[in-house]
Amino acid sequence: GLAELVLMVVVSIVIVALSGKANTARVFNPTLAHHGFAGVGIGMLLSAFSMSGSTATVYLGHEAHMAHRSIRRALLVSTTAVVVVFLLVSYAMTVGWGPAKMASFSGSNIPGLLIIGHFLGKPFELLTAVFMANSIFSAIVASTLVVSRVTHSMARAGVMPRGLSSVDRASGTPRAAVTTCLGLAAAGSVAASAIWNPNTAFIVLILVGTMGEFIGHIIGNLALPRFATRSHIFRPAVHLLLPAASLITTAIGVYYTVFPVSFPTAWGPILFGVGLLSFIGFLAIKKARPLPSNSPGIAALGKELGIELVVHEVAPKAG
Question: For residue 54, what pLDDT band results from cuts at 50, 70 and 90?
Fold first, then answer.
């Protein structure tokens, strides 16, 4: 991954340098975007969700030393690095292709490789293609890691089967959650490819994942103000205004993902909806059954974080 980032930065700098007089600040002019400012807004939304991998630091954070400090530092470093690389590569691709011809850029299957081949030759084009394959594989692995950690956390909180909350003694990883998520992902991929062709299956499954990410953001934005209030850390700008702005942009993302409705891509939101309703039904059934008295609850969480929590039973006072 680090080698890939270095390659893209170096290649982008070379393309910018070789573009000479083609370099221009006009690439930041909103009028060049499809539908002007509206197109810029949609592009910003898509870019923001494309960079969402940095939030994996939160899901993996409880496995780190000094989690609170490590998570904050990792979020700042990873987000800043990704934004800088996005801007540099996007600028290089735009001036390399031509700002006025970007409509044909979006219509090409491999525009980035064509630009790299034009400016740096076939060897760099092939090398970039290899790293692109590595990037796709890394994204799949990262997704499995993140989803398995979310599954493990939800199971630990009692909203998914308890068996998924177990941690392997030797490795310290949530093996049950990882194995389950990997098996479901593989089965879903094979089933989708059998129903549709691989390209369509990829799009449908990506949309299922996108809808899941949207709903996750919505739940987080709605929960944050209440969490901050109960934790006595509430600040209006951070815990109310920012979540509200994120909620609006997320709603826009949901709208443009669902509408206009067209098949087979519409199967993505439909399948996600079926899965969401099934999970809500599971929670309703689980809520109807009281948790056992020996449920680990907060004590187990404290143990994982290295905090010893001692619970004392106190007899009620008379009256």
Answer: low
